[in-house]
C-alpha cells in the first residue's frame, strides 16, 4: 500500500502556501529548499572566471576558479529536491505552488548558465567537469519530463528547459520558463518565455502604446509561418470564388468578383504594417511587427542554413525531421518578407473586454461558419 501524501498548508494570507510535504520517508520543507537554492550563488566553491592582469602587464586575461566537488553536490541535491517534488507531490499541489517549484528550477538553470562550463568557446577557460556536469543536468531534465508525462493529472506538462549547448545547433529558444509548453512561452499573457528587454525590441515603425488594461503576446517566427500559410490558402479560395463569380451570367458579376477580392484584401492580415483588427469575440486587437536586436544571450534565433540537409544524422532531432519532410513534400519554408534574416515577430496587444459587442454582432452574416453554440443567448455569447 502506497504511503499517503500529506501537504501542510498555511492559509493565513488567503492563498494556501504549502510549507511541508510528506510522503513516507520523502519529506520536503519549502523554506529549506528555497534557502539552499538561494545560497548556491553565495557559498564558496561556485566556479567563476575572474579578470587578472596578463603576464606582461598588458590587458587582462580570464582566470578560472573551478567548481568544487562539494558545491556541485549541493547543486544536484537541490535538483534532487525538485525531482522528489515532481514525483510525489506535484499532482496533489495547487497551481500557485507548482509555479513556485518551477521557478526554483528556473533559478537553478540561471545558476548553471553562469558557471564556467562553456567548453565550446575555445580560448575561454572552463572546468574539467563541464561535460560531466552538463550530462547530469540534461539527464535530470529528461527524468523530470518522464515523471511529469507519466502523471495522469498532468499528461501535457513538460519541463522544457534548453539543453546544455544550445548554440551548436544554431537554434536559441531564449530564456524559456520551466513548466510551460513551447507555445505557452509566447502565447500566454506577456509571453513569459520571451525575455528580450523592451529596449532591445526593434519595431519597424514607431511602437504604439495601448492605454488601459490589455493583454500582450509576442508571436515567434513559427507562428507567423502558420498564419502566412493559412492566409495564402484563404486567398486562393477567394480567388477561386471571384473567378467562378466572374464566369457566371448574372448581371454585374465582374464587379462582384472584384469586390470579393477587394473585401478579402481589406480584412486580411497585414504582414508589413501595424494594423487594428476586431477579434471574433469583439475585442480590439493591434498587431505590430518587430524583431529582437541580436545576437544576444536571450534572443530567439533560427539556423541560417538547413540542418542535416543530407539526412546523415543517426539521431535526428525533431527540427531535422521537420525540415527533411518539408523537402520531401517540396514545401517552402517561411520567407521573411523583408529579407533581412532577422527573427521576425509580432507584438499582439488585445483589449480585455469587447466594448459591449456581442459575438453575434461581430460575425453577423457569417453564422454558417461557426457552431450553433456560439450564438446562444441574446448577446451572442
Write the layout of secondary structure elements.
Elements: E1 5-10, E2 17-23, E3 26-29, H1 30-38, E4 48-53, E5 60-65, H2 69-88, H3 95-113, H4 130-149, H5 182-187, E6 201-203, E7 214-219, H6 221-246, H7 253-267, E8 275-278, E9 284-292, H8 318-328, E10 345-351, H9 359-362
Antiparallel strand pairs: 1-2, 2-3, 4-5, 6-9, 7-10, 8-9, 9-10
Helix pairs in contact: 2-3, 2-4, 6-7
**C-alpha geometry:** globular
Order of helices and strands: EEEHEEHHHHEEHHEEHEH
Provide the structure class. alpha+beta
- Work out the helicity level: 25-40%
Concise structural overview:
Residues 291-314 are annotated as: Disordered. The protein has helices spanning 30-38, 69-88, 95-113, 130-149, 182-187, 221-246, 253-267, 318-328, 359-362, and strands at residues 5-10, 17-23, 26-29, 48-53, 60-65, 201-203, 214-219, 275-278, 284-292, 345-351.
